[in-house]
Every structure is written in structure tokens, then in C-alpha cells.
Amino acid sequence: xxxxxxxxxxxxxxxxxxxxxxxxxxxxxxxxxxxxxxxxxxxxxxxxxxxxxxxxxxxxxxxxxxxxxxxxxxxxxxxxxxxxxxxxxxxxxxxxxxxxxxxxxxxxxxxxxxxxxxxxxxxxxxxxxxxxxxxxxxxxxxxxxxxxxxxxxxxxxxxxxxxxxxxxxxxxxxxxxxxxxxxxxxxxxxxxxxxxxxxxxxxxxxxxxxxxxxxxxxxxxxxxxxxxxxxxxxxxxxxxxxxxxxxxxxxxxxxxxxxxxxxxxxxxxxxxxxxxxxxxxxxxxxxxxxxxxxxxxxxxxxxxxxxxxxxxxxxxxxxxxxxxxxx
Length: 327
Ligand SMILES: [Mn+2]
Fold this sequence. Notes:
- About 35% of the residues lie in helices and about 15% in strands.
- It is of the alpha/beta class.
- The chain has a single domain, classed as Ureohydrolase domain (Arginase, Chain A, 3-Layer(aba) Sandwich).
- Strand 4, helix 4 and strand 5 (about 185-190) form a beta-alpha-beta unit.
- The longest helix has 22 residues, at about 300-325.
- The mean pLDDT is about 95.
- The site of manganese (II) ion has 7 residues, from loops.
């Protein structure tokens, strides 16, 4: 992470963000001002297997808004301004193509935020970075002790990428289980569907004790009881929870800007309510929102706007927890 001025990396990285999320104060990694939550961008798309473009995600997510950049967003249901106590340290200065070096940089950055007692909210970037994000949090809050609630169409548990290498956006959860940062029995995956991975990998996931909720099960039982169960499962004797939200968990009709869209997902309404509830009811230690690829967005930049609101709903859940709001 560059220790210089936040948003400095835009001088060398044309895709880096130039302004903070909703106008929250800019801060430096080495001076987080006692922030409750810290926004940080990881404009990384060199782990994608098909369409790239997520390096533009952190900038688009920040800029996708129509309110003033005044760090004031009173939430209609509660009146809380969840942006209080939130800072933005800009984008991590990455090195396009250097997967392993950048994963280390991201891990160290997230670890430093966690160690300062703040909650890192990482704007991706492709899903490769969750290996780094969850590892950084686990280094501080207990290796093997943190649960991971993973929203995604895909399980991301490939033994290798489709091209035989270890690190890519289809393998981060496998790497986390293998390293022990997040054991299989502390995983909850929500929204799985489609045609990947194959039976061998699914059997491995079962062996590791990973709990998955496919869209077919969510459709049959309803989202509410599934989330109820997931909250209980993820909260059980873990030191806390990392929330990883792949935008492709949402139906591509509502979130088209992503590299590997899979029809038949959650609605925007469902993901917003669910992440807010989880951030309120679980001890959330960190979160990321990944796989937003702005070049593929629909009219009005609907996907980037949804990701912006997902970040706000996570922050609102955290604020509600602090304020003692129960539902
Ligand atoms: Mn994913």
C-alpha cells in the first residue's frame, strides 16, 4: 500500500478512484483516525477467467451516486447516518499482472486496517482478492476462527483455475480452506446456481463441511428461513464473520456488469435487505464487494449503483448494531 496521500494512485493508474465514497473523509493507512469502518479499493482484474474490467470497479462504485459528496445518508428506515466514523483510504497501488505480489499487498493492507481496530470494506476487483481480504482479517481475529458468509452464483472452490494455476477468481475459497485461514466448516455460501463446479469439487466441499444454499433451495424454502439458518450457522463459536458479496449473486437482469453472469439470481431488494440484516446480527469483522465490471454495465450504470447501495446497507447494518436497533 502506498503510504502517501489517499487517491494518489490515480496519478499512475488511470483506472484508480479519484474521490472518496460518498464524500467520507480521506485517510491514510498509517493514520485511520480511529475509524469504525475503512473503505479501500482493490482495482484488480488479473484473476478473471472470461471477461475482465473489474479494475474499474472501485472507481465506478464510489462515483455511482446522485447525492452530494457530503458523507450524509440518513437511512429512511432508521434515520441513522451510517457514514459517521467511516473513512476512505483510496485504492491500493497494484501492479497489473502480478497476482501473487498484489495478493500480498492486499492482505497486508487489510491486516493493518483490522489491527487498527477498524472494519475493512474492500471494493473489488475480481473475486481472487477475497483470499487476501479474509486472510488479512483472520491474521488479526484468529486464523481459522473467522466465519465467511459468501454470496455468489459460483462456489469459487476450484482446485486450480481453468488454466492450471492456483490463484484466480474461481479458486479463492479453496485457497482459504487449504491455508486454514477459514476452515470449510466456517463457510456459508448463498445463491449458488448454474453449471459449475463439477461433482468432484462439490464432493470436496461437502467433505470440508462447507454449507451451501443453492437458488433452488432458496426458491423452495424462501430467503428468510435460509438467512435465519445461515446467521445461526455462521455466528456459532466463530470470532466473527467476513462478508464476501460477489455481485453476480444478483440476477444479471438487475446486475449485468459482471464477468461471468448466471441467470436466475437474487433480486436487488433481497441482497440489500440480507446484507443489512447480517451486518446487524453478526459480528462482522470485514466485507468485500467484488466482480463489478463497469464496461459491461447496463443503461444508467445500474450494477455499479447497486454495489454502491450494498456498501451502504452493510454500513447501515453495522450502524444499527452499534445503535442497538434489533430489527
Ligand atoms: Mn465469485
